[in-house]
Fold this protein.
Amino acid sequence: MIELHVVLILMIICAIVAMEIKDLLSSVIALGAVGIGLTVEFLLLRAPDLAITQLVVEILSVIILIRATVGVKVPQENIKMRLGYFIFALVFVAVFLFFSKRAVAQLPSFGDPMMKIGSLYNSLALSKAGAANIVSSVILDFRAYDTLGEATVLFTAVIGVLTVLRASGRKK
Amino acid sequence: MSLYILCLVLFAIGIYCLLVKKNLVKKIVGLGIAEYALNLFFILLGYKSGGEAPILSRGLTANSFVDPLPQALILTSIVIGLAVTALMAAITLRLYEKYRTFDINEIRRLKG
Amino acid sequence: MKEKEQGMSLIVKRITRITVSLIFLFGVYIMLHGHLTPGGGFAGGVIIALSFIHVVLAFGKKESLKMLNDNVVSFFESLGGLLFLGIALSGLIGGYFFLNVLPKGKPFDLFSSGTIILSNIAIFLKVGVGLFAIFIALAILRVPRDDKEEVK
């Protein structure tokens, strides 16, 4: 699977650009590039539901972040600390990868999942739920509690945004 | 194996951006990158080599699909990520309206 | 001049009138076929939120908020949430929460698979209208710009 590596390395380059660039608008657009790369990865990994959702969510997320950053003065970061930050970044990534490499060694290898519950869903989806799309039958029938919780979180987020951004202040 | 490591490198970049950058918009970008890496890691765990997308059609048996459970979990996670991003953008806009800056050092100093 | 013309130019408005209904229809298609093809309530909801946002961006806030005010938004948000909870409670007829009580129908048909299609409609309303409400709140907020401050 060489194309997975290529797209993932492209995503890493876009993430570094999004992190280090001065202009905030360019940073947000580079984040959009990372999301488009993620869409391609989902398509290559046989997850078309996630690819569609990720594509449209990415567009909406970039619109919201552009609304937050447009017309804002570009801040001046101090460049004196740049070398110290670079050394700190290298140490941080090295320590993180050292421990994660030992954790990854315990996981099943790529392309050979365990599928203890997944195979059960695969065989029961048509008889129990009657839907051809197995992912849809999992999120709306077998594990619908997850979706109920997700709806609650979304409702809470909408109420939070409307509370933070309400037009009139608290004048009595 | 190397795919897992690359995915964790992407996660490390996001966490580093979240920790080090002083700008609030940069912090939102870093959290978004870390979330993308986590979503990708779950889908990588559920991939079966030579598997098909989990949509039933005639002529496919139940053994020929990839794991549908991580896909169902991540599908809700993506939409929650969008809601979290919108909430953080709203709070950032309010802070900008009050303090006229995105720098967290400035915000803390003005509070006194 | 800025006060008179809300929104973008005439070309954008004319094209928007044609395309926005197609985008809306595509969202409804993605949602209705969510149990047969890739898609579902989440993707369809975000697509119709994007079509509303398209209208707001092209025509300006005042024109589009006449059609979609906050009463409509709160009605559909509540309707989506209550519909999903009602589907969950209807499973108690057969025994437990979230039981698929409706008849399954013939597989690979549009009207098959019991409550999944109704749940898709509920999620569709909830996600689409909720994200549109977030965008409206962000668009109405008037952040003072830096250049205006420097003039003063």
The first helix of chain A runs from residue 2 to 20. Chain A touches chain B through 84 residues (CB under 8 Å). DSSP finds seven helices and no strands in chain A. The mean pLDDT of chain A is 85.
